[in-house]
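Sequence in, structure out. Go.
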Amino acid sequence: MSSSREVRPSRQLTHSTSNPLDAIGRHIPLPIPVPDWSKPIILVLFLLAIWFGVRSRLAARRASRLEARQATLLRDVDAMQAALVPEVPARVGGLAVSVAYRPAEGPAAGGDFYDVFAPERGRVAIILGDVAGHGHRALKQAALTRYTLRAYLQTGLEPRAALALAGRVLGNPTTEHFATVVVAIYDTREGRLTYASAGHPPPILHGLTTREPLTLCASPPIGWTVPTGRRQTIVSLPLGAIACFFSDGLVEARCKGDLLGRERLSEILGALGARPDAAKLLARVRSAAIATPDDMAACILVPEVTVIAAHTHIEELEADSQALAAGQVRRFLETCQLPTPDIERTIERAGGIAALHGTAVVRVDLAGAVAAATVTVPDGAAQAGVSARRPQPVGGSSGGR
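Output:
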């Protein structure tokens, strides 16, 4: 019996000494009384806790730096977007002006831009456009387009000439961010609005005393490396008239089974009364649509003081030999309702000028009871006097542009 009692402790000792954790734990001093086998486990857990703590601290610092960078980025983008859609006075040069902008997603995400300013006394310039895409590159291209056009208008260029020059200067075959834009000049002394579009929807005009302006032969956007600024319209804006410039995000708002469209947008504008507010227009479009996936911008002009001696409606088309051969000028003149003999003579004169100067400017006056067409060289320095007036035959010379 005594021998068996002696064997048991020796077996327990042998098992204890064979545990490697006990052997390691005996060399780890800890200030708390714990079994030797648990000391290595406690040490490993302690080291893991330190490692995770350090990682958490580093992650927190990294997140803080990223939040700061994001806040700075948003401020920079907001500042850049503010440069694209600036605050505009409620009255500019005899016009009541209302502007509004709504991005499609997130703050300052889109490439819509507008500007309203007075390049000189008696003239108000309007720019509204849209750059394809979103993000920094779209914002950069939008800013470049806006300030380039602003500079050209400040030098006194008419809208069509400003677009044509911008198209040559900003044309880049490598860029994906082309710009559609409409540019206008309002003459406060004569109450006339002159506008030209480059791939952009023309303004909606209410309250005109003449026929609806033409949209035929529209010019391509800026950035396609092809000539633009070939079309221009001049109309009188009497008291009570409304001119609404807008980006395509309004007409492309998604409704049930279809897009909102220009006609529906015109109805919404008319329902806002004699002094429509641009912000309300965007809100009405948003409520009428299921979704508005694109940015929306609008600029509404209402003449406040104007004296119009004679109402004006002039349509201009600059055409080269290729456009003449393709029949664009013929379709333009037919839409202007010129009689066939006058159309033939006008095309013949335009072809002669285009052969000498590269292009010819066909100008049709639609304000009177009879239509009148003239053809000039692009710079207006010389003219081929085509005067197509019903029932008078085409011939003679015409005055300056």
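Check: Confidence is low (pLDDT under 50) at residues 1-7, 9-16, 380-401. Residues 190 and 336 are 24 Å apart (CA to CA).
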